[in-house]
């Protein structure tokens, strides 16, 4: 049996899926299987997989039921001792599996290991942004405040799912980027986490994952928070307001990142964040959001967008100056 099962949910994902799977097949650690869960796709995914020569790649097809149930199908069919998840548009550095397998092998108490991630654009070019996390050890308190664990970065012992069950099947209530948060919270209640403090994945940022409807996202955050604290010990209920505070910060950013650039709603979430958790005024994320809202007030939507483009271009340029330190997944040795 393979040591690791890699689960890749896919729904009409052929624009990026070949590159995603290629980043898995080029791993330095080779004892794995790749389970692509075709979630009712209407593209040519079956034909594409049938032409692959690597027998480690397997296709499992189901009617469209959402990413949570797709991951659960993968978990039920997985043979590996460890399970890694990869979204169909993200990429892995070549040593991702090797380093995380080593971590779990050497630390039998750890239930989940994750990593930092680099952000790339739609074309796969680095944006210069690296998302870091210090979520390790006993992390339940950290995770209920906010999710800092990217799904494509995790490797989990299969035992965790055998003990706790899979992702919540109520997919219609959870947007794609929330159901994993609830899962990590459940795991964190029973197992310590570890983090590899270097980027091991490339998160692809594009319009379909940056402009989620904030109304749906607000509902999903509320469901996760209420579910989590419904069974929390009384002495930990003080964290509930912190969780709502951070959730409102994220919702404010979603409003600013949407096509419609909903300034008034962003301002409302910004104010609600502080009402729930006043200490947020001292955190960098709140200060950065305050600067963004102020800039939008001063310059207007069009000029604000142009300023952002200039900032992003400058960041990419500065990043390119040190590009020798950045190695794309397919080139890493």
TrEMBL record:
Annotated CDD domains: Glyco_tranf_GTA_type
Keywords of this entry: Transferase
A GO term for molecular function: hexosyltransferase activity
Keyword Ligase: no
Endoplasmic reticulum recorded as keyword: no
Pfam families according to UniProt: Glycos_transf_2 (PF00535)
Ranges for domain Glycosyltransferase 2-like: 5-128
Protein name listed in UniProt: Glycosyl transferase family A
Species lineage: Bacteria, Bacillati, Cyanobacteriota, Cyanophyceae, Nostocales
